[in-house]
């Protein structure tokens, strides 16, 4: 499918989706989010793809929802269209792992989009923020919920109430990003990480994603049971036999997603 606001490339087993609205710092408008949801669904359904990278430009991952598109809207329009609701739910439904590779600004909806991914690798130039308060609104696609779970209440309140930006080093220290790399190696690092994930059994990969995400949705005892049952279920797969035999035979495993 042809897209206007994103660029999609598939290399080996990795689909890279690049946000591409350079004149607007990759601000997220309805078209971009629709296209992104569609590209993610395509990647999810493409048997060749085993991991997805979402990225922006050197200057901006995304500087937030498109303020020009939103500024004149009424409550009735926002509510009736469930503005960004369908698209953001579609993004979160992606089953394959998504790595956000973030350089430059990830603000407002841009920070929220990065947090919808499974983990964030940040360039040392990355700047995260939830500055919606400066516009007389607040985060609307998960910022108050996901940032709080990732960095805790104190820092989340600080970010949302002051609108200040967090640099990459603070973001790593706070648990928002999994690692920080020099800007020039961001995409190589993301690609190498995605390829490493792509080598695993897709069965375990999808199970890991479901189990970790379940930690946000349920009690500890239910989550532990869910994880244990998934672990038991893996023993119905050929990949479990292959993975454990390969270890014992001191060779690398050849997973077949069976
Ligand atoms: N929307 C639209 N256009 C934008 C946005 C944006 N969020 N951010 C930047 N741009 C545009 C600018 O208007 C400018 O365009 P032009 O050249 O036509 O004037 C161009 O990008 C370059 O921007 P700047 O000249 O401002 O570049 P600077 O380097 O001086 O500053 C910043 C870069 C710091 C990123 C600055 O542009 C900025 O502060 N941007 C806005 C950040 C912001 O407030 N983000 C939050 C937006 S609201 C939001 O995300 C809500 C999400 C929830 C939606 C929920 C729906 C249910």
UniProtKB/TrEMBL annotation:
Superkingdom per UniProt: Bacteria
Keywords attached to this entry: Fatty acid metabolism, Lipid metabolism, Lyase
Gene Ontology MF terms: enoyl-CoA hydratase activity
E.C. no: 4.2.1.17
CDD domains, per database record: crotonase-like
One BP annotation, GO: fatty acid beta-oxidation
PANTHER family: ENOYL-COA HYDRATASE, MITOCHONDRIAL, ENOYL-COA HYDRATASE-RELATED
Annotated function: Could possibly oxidize fatty acids using specific components.
Listed name of the protein: enoyl-CoA hydratase
Source organism of the structure: Puniceibacterium antarcticum
